[in-house]
Amino acid sequence: MITAPHLHAMVIHFPIALLMAGFFSEIIALFIKREFLRQASFYLLVLGTLGAIAAYVSGSYAGDGMTDGILQPPLELHEDAALITLLLAIITAISRTAMYYFNYQKTWAKWISGLLYAILIGFVARTGYLGGQLVFKHGAGIELALPDFGDQPKE
């Protein structure tokens, strides 16, 4: 059976990969000057933002029941970082969508949008790091079970 922590672990990797691939596509487009890469960056940002929404919701459910005890401080850090990441992703996606839709090509807007994207990637990395700390350092969502040796043939 799939639990909320399992679902969150399955969902979270998509927005991380999509947002980072979109950012690197944007960086490469600065040097190569290919419109395809710039458009790919835009669509990866939008898809990554949608994935970030799904990851945030699944993470909220995964964190239910872990609010007391030793997990509370690192869980709150991860939740706060995730909320900032989500808001930055939405703001960046909306600004890029507006620039794309209205064909707004001012240099200062491109720089601010690129800076927002870079800050977003920094927060994606921080949120992922804090999530990894929850699992690998604190054991959040880990179910320990001993193997069932009852079915072993006796010699």
Structural class: mainly alpha
- DSSP summary, beta strand count: 0
Order of helices and strands: HHHHH
Low-confidence stretches: none
Which percent band covers the strand fraction? under 5%
Give the % helix: over 70%
Largest sheet at a glance? none
Which features characterize this protein?
155 residues; mainly alpha; 5 helices
Written description of the protein model:
By secondary structure, the protein is mainly α. The chain has one domain. The chain contains five helices and no strands. Helix 2 packs antiparallel against helix 3, helix 3 packs antiparallel against helix 4 and helix 4 packs antiparallel against helix 5. The longest helix has 30 residues.
Short characterization:
The protein is mostly helical. The protein has five helices and no strands. It has one domain (about 5-135).
Q: What is the element layout, followed by pairings?
A:
Blueprint: H1 4-11, H2 13-32, H3 35-63, H4 72-101, H5 107-136
